[in-house]
Write a structure and sequence with these properties.
mainly alpha
């Protein structure tokens, strides 16, 4: 069958005789679920699996309903996103611009297009030139979702858009994340831990750039809850770098920058605040 995820969810919901609120099953908000059915928003794999499980819907049968729709575009979509991430870490503005142009002309979701715009603005140092209508649209996507601090896709967009917020706005939203995760961050699923860790190190980057360390100790507390796994090594290294910057431990911060440069991230290490 050639159905989108939204169409397939709607079909399953209708077959079960459920409302959208009942189908959302407290996994995501009804408002967010409604947009997924209408293909206005993406859904994370984790949330999709949770909804299907709650309603005893076979994952294999669900995949059969949608696989023809996504099979032809998935490889190219993944390839473009990987290239964009690689260009970002290599601080390659020309490659980022070309990839952003390709993404804007593609069938990518609204969140993915906004993310590409933000990555280009970051690499080209033109965050201040992002049009006001784009800023408003990013904020609308983020915060019309009542459970944005739980939603993987919304958190990813927030992670990429942190530089567009004012000091007070950013602190307000960071406090919402802290309040949500501070007591049980070590018990969250792997994907949420990686996203929150990314938000933490991005916030510490902004804090060090602006010499404003009001919430830095709470960021370190979250990062210190990350499990001892190789997948979190990068976040732990950046945690130590920003701690050294705040503590004015120049020898330690230089040693970490040199370590990153010698281990495959020379361009990225040059972008770190001093």
């Amino acid at each position: 069958m050639n159905m989108t995820i939204g169409e397939a969810l709607k079909k399953e919901r209708k077959d079960l005789g459920l409302t959208q609120t009942e189908m959302a099953a407290d996994v995501i908000s009804p408002a967010h679920y409604s947009k997924i059915e209408r293909d206005k928003h993406d859904i994370s794999a984790y949330d999709l699996f949770a909804i299907l499980t709650k309603h005893n819907i076979s994952l294999l049968d669900f995949i059969k309903e949608i696989e023809n729709t996504y099979q032809s575009i998935s490889d190219n979509k993944i390839n473009i996103n990987l290239k964009l991430i690689r260009a970002f870490y290599q601080s390659d503005p020309q490659a980022v611009k070309a990839l952003n142009k390709e993404i804007q002309a593609s069938t990518a979701t609204q969140e993915e297009k906004m993310r590409a715009i933000l990555i280009e603005a970051n690499v080209t140092h033109t965050i201040d030139k992002i049009p006001e209508d784009v800023r408003k649209e990013i904020k609308r996507i983020l915060f019309e979702n009542d459970d944005w601090v739980d939603d993987e896709l919304t958190l990813r967009l927030f992670c990429n858009s942190m530089l567009i917020f004012s000091h007070n706005e950013l602190n307000f939203y960071i406090n919402e994340i802290i309040d949500k995760y501070s007591t049980h961050f070590d018990q969250e699923d792997f994907h949420h831990q990686k996203l929150i860790a990314s938000i933490c190190v991005n916030f510490l980057y902004i804090s060090c750039t602006n010499n404003d360390f009001e919430l830095s100790s709470r960021m370190f507390s979250l990062l210190d809850q990350l499990p001892e796994m190789p997948e979190f090594f990068f976040y732990k290294v950046l945690r130590n770098y920003y701690k050294a910057i705040i503590d004015k431990d120049t020898s330690k911060s230089k040693a970490i920058k040199n370590f990153l440069a010698k281990n495959g991230l020379p361009h990225f290490s040059n972008t770190l605040p001093k």
